[in-house]
Design goal:
The chain is mainly alpha-helical. It is 55% helix and 11% strand.
Length: 275
């Protein structure tokens, strides 16, 4: 995701300084005109907007804290634009380690690789209204910006969106399992699903389900991580989410079976094993 976001910004004519924990992954961007930095601190010290896109909260801590982290290089001229899905507590922690005067925008995204490449991400931007307004033109190069409230609301919005994501894929899998268990043909099952609220998801996932091939767009390990974030946030608010808990169990089972780096829709084959 980070590389695709960087390419979009380069294509739009922006000057970029890039850093990746795996240095080789930054080399293609340098070949396109970006400047490679030796550390996150160096990258942050040379830019107006320091964008972070990492896997999880632990990775965010790794790249933002310590003597080589983003916080060490940020100044009062820097806005840190945090675009990863890491949960509200991680945003509070990041805010606490940034130097005084450094602005922070929480702007996680909905969408995967193809949306990042096409500039059609849904971006849930949160922070002071004037800061959201200032960076909306830049973020609009990547997709549609939705101002959702004060700092941290972006993470809340993303968890709301992903609650539907993990729930829908679980319901779709169980619908296919019922069809197989009752002897309904694959063709008939998808025709029926096409008449329901799951129509678009059924059509989108059908080719992968029937072929048994699940090339990663949004990996199952990331979907499981997001389900964990949703359940942790719900527990902190004394909210029970039995549907998400069940969907998370399917994701965890598929990950334990070795499917973590495949697309999260591989869980369909786990739920409806007749595929």
């Amino acid at each position: 995701m980070g590389e695709r976001i960087a390419r979009r910004l380069l294509d739009a004519g922006h000057e970029l300084v890039v850093w990746n924990r795996t240095a080789a992954k930054a080399e293609p961007l340098a070949g396109l005109g970006a400047t490679a930095a030796a550390t996150p601190a160096e990258a942050a010290s040379r830019v107006e907007a320091a964008i972070t896109m990492v896997t999880d909260a632990a990775a965010l801590i790794e790249v933002t804290e310590g003597p080589e982290g983003v916080a060490a290089g940020a100044t009062e001229r820097t806005t840190v634009v945090q675009m990863s899905t890491v949960g509200p507590p991680a945003i509070s922690r990041l805010e606490s380690v940034l130097p005084p005067g450094t602005a922070l925008l929480d702007a996680p995204v909905l969408g995967s690789r193809s949306e990042a490449e096409g500039g059609t991400l849904q971006i849930y931007a949160s922070g002071p209204p004037e800061l959201v307004e200032r960076w909306t033109p830049l973020l609009s190069e990547l997709g549609t910006v939705h101002p959702v409230g004060p700092l941290g609301a972006g993470q809340a919005a993303k968890l709301v969106a992903n609650t539907t994501l993990v729930g829908v894929i679980g319901v779709l899998g169980e619908a296919l399992a019922v069809a197989e268990g009752l002897g309904l043909s694959r063709e008939a099952a998808f025709e029926v699903l096409g008449t329901t609220a799951l129509a678009s998801q059924a059509e989108r996932r059908r080719a992968n389900f029937e072929s048994g091939d699940y090339p990663p767009r949004f990996t199952l390990s990331l979907a499981r991580k997001d389900a964990d974030l949703i359940l942790a946030a719900a527990a902190a608010s004394n909210i029970e989410l039995p549907v998400v808990e069940a969907a998370r169990a399917w994701l965890a089972e598929a990950e334990d079976a070795g499917h973590g780096e495949e697309d999260y829709s591989v869980v369909l084959a786990r739920i409806a094993p007749g595929s």
